Amino acid sequence: MALLETRDLTAFYGDFQALFGVDLTLQEGETVAVIGANGAGKTTLMRSVSGLIRQTPGMVRLDGREIGALPADEIMAQGVAMVPEGRKLFPSLSVEENLLMGRHRRKVNGPWSLDSVYRLFPILKERRNQPGTALSGGQQQMVSIGRALMSNPRVLLCDEISLGLAPVVIRDIYAAFPRIRETGASVIVVEQDIGQAMKVADRVYCMMEGRVTLSGRPDELSREAIHDAYFGAAA
Amino acid sequence: MIWIDTIVQGILLGGLYALFALGLSLVFGIMRLVNLAHGDLIVLAAYLILVLVTLLGLGPFMAALLAAPIMFGIGWALQRLVLNRVLGPDILPPLLVTFGLSVLLQNALQEAFSADSRRIPAGWLETSSVSLGPVSLGLMPLLTFASAILVTLALQWLFYRTALGRAFRATSDDPTTASLMGVKPEAIFAKATGIAMVVVTIAALYLGTRANFDPTIGPARLIYAFEAVIIGGLGSLWGTLAGGVIIGVAQTVGAQINPEWQILAGHVAFLVVLLVRPRGLFPRAFD
To answer: Which residues form the ABC transporter domain (chain A) (predicted)?
Structure first.
């Protein structure tokens, strides 16, 4: 049984349908990448899984249990943590307080604590008392990832973590992923950067216009197939 | 010498205005809600203390201690059952609902207690004073000011030293992202309003023991509270205390010049601060 599963997932913004029957599975300990161009529905998929967009029952399951109809705070308590697009640090909180917010509800013992997050991203320890929003974009992303890890999540959702960051910073952020994987967390990475996604993922889903257009292991997918699934066959 | 006494009395009066305002500041700081019924809730708490004093024969401080959890419950239920339903990007619905609540409370209190003025008896405390050199200070005003400082310190500790305070600030910043941390914003808002009502109870204790009150004086207390919050800077607790003190000093100085100018001087001070510092004296940097 998959750890996380979406089945025939649909999502709407008012009358506008953003997702059309998305099926996705995430196995225990696996890293899955979701790639696609702007507007493909990747962030909507993350918002649906995390509970920011409420679903009708049956569309999202964690360990076989229905979670799609739960609010975001309940889904987080079940072990699904999200690194939201744009980092979304709390401006009135220091770096350390932002990290501690990750443990506000889900206080599960596990590999991740303040100390282990500081070991993963040492710069954060130096900046622990500064406002989170006073940091550089890359450091803010480290706080956002660390904050999600603080709950010792079973599923970590990373939404566009490379967005707006310099290549060298993106490399530093992704350098933390092997350590995150070692701790057993299952990860869904949403990315526009196909190269980075292919490097970290066990499997890849490509989305276009709210639908999954291609899926498979990175070594099974040809550049042409990805190009067609990403931009459309006519592109 | 008269001016020193006037300013000291104004500072102490400012403690009462700060107590009126701290609950309002807390609620506004967390959920950007201007509660137009805030003054009437102070009056409701004053009547509750009066009832407990009268029926159970308690002293006013013990009665306030009993009233505080009741008011917490009222605040929690009010937020959970009414105000959470109207909070959103449009500020008009909560304004209308709290305005309606203000009218409702005034009428309900008039039905229950009549329009007669009441006062919470405080016994020997009412007339006790201490002399500090040439200045004579009433014990109740001193207790009021000390309570204002203690409440500010307590709220400051709650906000900046506890997990609940962290959740208050995070939810105030971004309720959607806070929900991704497992925070239930509606529950946080209900706790905040409950705590604000505890502060309201402390304000009501001093309102009711220091002066007469009746069911219709709530809106005037709201104005003082609102002015103190604006002067201090929205959402700033120490700023709110400073705002209360500025209004208090302005009122006593105004009254010293001409007794008819007391209330006017407080409002003028508010307008002057608003002109010079439109965001208040100590605005939160990230607002």
So the answer is: 4-234
Residue B110 falls within a domain, yes or no? yes
The count of structural domains within chain B is: 1
Superfamily name with CATH number, domain A4-229: P-loop containing nucleotide triphosphate hydrolases (3.40.50.300)
Mean pLDDT along residues B235-249: 93
The answer to the question of residue B86 being in a domain is yes
Query: In chain A, whose CA is at the least distance from the CA of B173?
Result: A90
Q: Residues near B269 by Cβ (< 8 Å), separated by ≥ 6?
A: B231, B246, B247, B249, B250
Q: With a threshold of 0.95, tell me whether the complex ipTM lies above it.
A: no
Summarize pLDDT for B29-40 with one digit per residue, the tens. Answer: 899 899 999 999
CB B262 within 8 A of CB B224: no
- Please count the residues of chain A: 235
Range of the domain at B272: 2-115+154-276
Domain-by-domain residue ranges, chain A? 4-229
B261: how many CB neighbours lie within 10 A of its CB? 16
What average pLDDT does the structure give for chain B?
94
From the list B163, B169, B284, the residue facing A90 with the nearest CB is B169
Q: Is A88 on the interface with B (CB under 8 A)?
A: yes
pLDDT of A93-136, one tens digit each?
999 999 999 999 988 889 999 999 999 999 999 999 999 999 99
Q: Which is it for the CA torsion B43, B44, B47, B49, positive or negative?
A: negative
**Paired sense of beta strands A31-36 and A203-208, if any:** parallel
pLDDT in tens, B122-141: 988 888 989 888 788 999 99
Least CA distance to A76: which residue of chain B?
Answer: B182
The CA dihedral of A41, A45, A48, A53, to the nearest 10 degrees, is -20
Asked if residue B129 belongs to a domain, the reply is no
